[in-house]
Amino acid sequence: MDISIFADTPFDDEDAMEDFLLANSLSHSLVATTLEQNGKFIATYPISSMGDESNWKDEHYRMHQDEFTLLGLTGMPDWTGFDFEDEAQWADWHSQHAVVHQAVNSVLGITT
Ligand SMILES: [Zn+2]
After folding, report:
1. Exposed, middle or buried by CB within 10 Å (0-12, 13-18, 19+), for 51?
2. Which protein residues have their CB within 5 A of the ion that is ligand 1?
3. C-alpha of residue 66 to centroid of ligand 1, in Å
4. What are the boundaries of each domain within the chain?
5. Which residue among 49, 93, 100, 102 is least crowded, i.e. fewest CB within 10 A of its CB?
């Protein structure tokens, strides 16, 4: 799944956030399945809904770090302390997140 269409997820829009959360979760599931098909295994977490924001951020970040490590990628941004209540940080995070997903998809040959 191409998560880049969610790079511009509007700030403070609950419906848009739900769409993003589902797309992001599906994208991570596809990455985990593709890794598994290549004999590599990654822990997954329930990230299709936000629930506790701090837990969501931690678990989602852990998956991204694990994906980068397993694939030998470098340059994973440090998302510690990103404030989703700040519109500028929100936009910055979504841009970085889309780039990170594109990097992983590119290595794995995921084009859908
Ligand atoms: Zn993600």
Report:
1. exposed
2. 24
3. 11
4. 3-108
5. 49
